[in-house]
Amino acid sequence: MRNGSDKERKGIYDRKAFRLFYIAGIQSARIGKRIKRRTVQFFQPVVEWSASLCGSFLRKRFRVLRKEIHRVHHGFEIAEQRIRQAKRKGKANCLAEFFKVTGKSMVRHKSLLMSIANVAAPIVAVVVLGSTIHFWMNQNFGLVLAYGNETIATIQSEQTLEQASDMVNQRLVSDAVEKKAGVGISPRYQLTIVDKAHYATPTALCDKLIKKSGGIIEDASGLYVNGELIGAIKSSADLSYLLQNTLSSAKGDDPAAKVSFVENVESVKGLYPTASLLTSEELKNLLAGTSEESLTYTVKEGDTAEVIADQFQVSKEELTESLGEAQLAGLKVGDQIRLSEAKPLLTVKMTREERYETIIPYKTVTVNDDHKDTDYSKVTQEGVEGIEQCVDEVTYIDGVEVSRETVSKTVVKEAVDKIITVGTQKVEKPVNQEGIATGSMAWPVPYTRRVVSQYSMRWGKMHNGIDISSSGIRGQSIVAADGGTVKYVKYHNYGYGYHLMIDHGNGLSTLYAHCNSIYVKAGQKVSKGQVIATVGTTGDSTGNHLHFEVYRNGSRVNPLNYIG
After folding, report:
1. Three-state SS for 373?
2. Angle, CA 161 vertex, CA 158 and CA 162 arms, to 5°
3. Distance between CA 433 and CA 555 in Å, rounded?
4. What pairing do the DSSP bridges indicate for beta strands 364-373 and 418-425?
5. Who wins on pLDDT, 430 or 478?
6. Res. 18: pLDDT tops 60
7. CA nearest 147: which of 226, 205, 63, 71?
8. 3-class SS at 158?
9. How far apart are CA 221 and CA 235, in angstroms?
10. Of 194, 368, 411, 434, whose CB is crowded by the most CB atoms within 10 A?
């Protein structure tokens, strides 16, 4: 009861709150419309008066302007007549009359000219100001670099001098001499307007600074790798040969491969201190060497000294010498160790095409045959694999493959489908029950289908059945050719030996002779395919075999006409 009253009370509160908000919204809309209407009513006279005043002023000015334009037009007609009359009296009179008419026109229309001047003057001033700003903004300013009383070069900014100074310091450093200080000058700058084409580059400025350094210098070619000077030699041809030879060696036996340096490699001709120059052989050995690069490695689960040494391709002794025995023995997961890794000075990227053949697997296709039973399945065409020739574009860096992209694929030999023919015809098969014939006979010896003696004349008399035999047949199973009832089981020392007959109840009977063992007895009902005996050589027999006969209405017939 309490829950019901609470819900009812809540519903009353909700309805009251809704009504309150609804009334508040309606009232707000009404007040807003009222304020808008009264505001329009208050400002409407002011707007109408202002519009009337503005219209009156504009109409007055338009009448004055129209009147003045009419006067100017009339004045031009009078001036044209006076100048034409003066022209008949000569050119001098014509020119004098022109200046006279012009002066009177300017005095007469002074107010119009002043109005035009008042409007045009600010416009002209703005145009002049904009043109001035545009002119100065499109000028190229440069710094004239001076040393002592001599001008060295004009540069775009102080950054050019900084870059040139760094290049000078790089060129002055050599293993053959002690490190000396770079070019120490106190430059003076002067701002000037200059053509962009006259800016000095950092390289050109570097050469000029070296000339001013007072050292012994020579024209040479410097090798820069990623902006850092590696060395300089006199002959630029020798430097080009060394670089090209490095790239050619990377091609190996593939002259069509594309090779390039991973690093930014530059050959810069300029002035270099003589003492810092290298021979071609020295630079060649330098390029063939490696540089040590420091890196930090974090120890992971399962890391040992041997694992880390193998990963960085160093011996355990070298790793011990680098880290120390104490640190190496106390390694824990998460420890960070500093190692040095040898890296080649120049890294070569090679891209080449690689051709290879792949196997195209054949498909297996199933073909339906409406004339075959659903149990039928036969391979009517063997499958043959095809061959496809592929071309890949492979990229190597220092001999290690980093990417591979397939360029083309060409089928050299088409694959041949494997075809399996299956039957789709559903045949109602008789139920195989004990004592009931199905109407068709099974082969009596599943072990073999080899017939060694036919249903025909043999040794001057009729052989009334077929003999089934092959190597290893002794003791193999004999099955009932069809369902039926065992008519008798007999044994003779001569003739058929152990043998039995089955009556199939449809006018057909079958006889199984020379058995080794018999598993059924007279009167027993058997089903098609049931094991009834084993193959032997009892009775009048020269070897292990089954003598099989078929009787139709009591007369022997050819068994092969019934068991196929």
Report:
1. strand
2. 90
3. 26
4. parallel
5. 478
6. no
7. 205
8. helix
9. 7
10. 194
Q: Please check whether residue 336 is in contact with residue 298, taking contact to mean a CB–CB distance below 8 angstroms.
A: yes
For residue 293, give the H/E element and its range.
strand 290-298
Asked if residues 479 and 495 have their Cβ atoms less than 8 Å apart, the reply is: no
Which residue has 């009504």 as its token pair?
A: 19
Least confident segment among 186-190, 341-345, 391-395, 520-524: 186-190
pLDDT in tens, 355-406: 999 999 999 999 888 777 776 778 889 989 999 999 999 998 888 888 999 9
Q: What is the pTM of this model?
A: 0.40
State the DSSP string of 386-437. Answer: EEEEEEEEEEEETTEEEEEEEEEEEEEE--B-EEEEEEEE---PPP--TT--
Secondary structure class of 298 (helix, strand, coil): strand
- Report the C-alpha gap between 376 and 331 in whole angstroms: 70
Judged against a pLDDT cut of 90, whether residue 547 lies above it is answered with yes
Cα 113 from Cα 68, distance rounded (Å) = 11
Token readout for 404 is: 């591979």
d(CA 364, CA 505): 46
User: For residue 120, what are its two tokens?
Assistant: 């045009």
The answer to whether the CB of 516 falls within 8 A of the CB of 500 is no
CA–CA separation, 445 and 449 (whole Å): 7
Q: Check: CB of residue 268 under 8 Å from CB of residue 210.
A: no
Band of pLDDT at residue 540, cut at 50, 70 and 90: confident
In contact, 484 and 503? CB cutoff 8 Å:
yes
Residues pairing with 157 in the sheet: none
| pLDDT at site 379 | 86
Cβ neighbours of residue 256 under 8 Å, at least 6 residues apart?
Answer: 352, 353
CA of residue 276 relative to chain centroid, distance:
48
The CA-to-CA distance between both ends of the chain, in Å, stands at 93
> What pLDDT was estimated at residue 389?
93
pLDDT at 193 over 90: no
Q: Are strands 484-490 and 461-463 parallel, antiparallel or unpaired?
A: unpaired
Q: Which of 61-70, 146-155, 489-498 has the least mean pLDDT? A: 146-155
Q: Which of 75-89, 129-143, 179-193, 379-393 has the lowest mean pLDDT?
A: 179-193
Q: What type of residue sits at position 306?
A: E
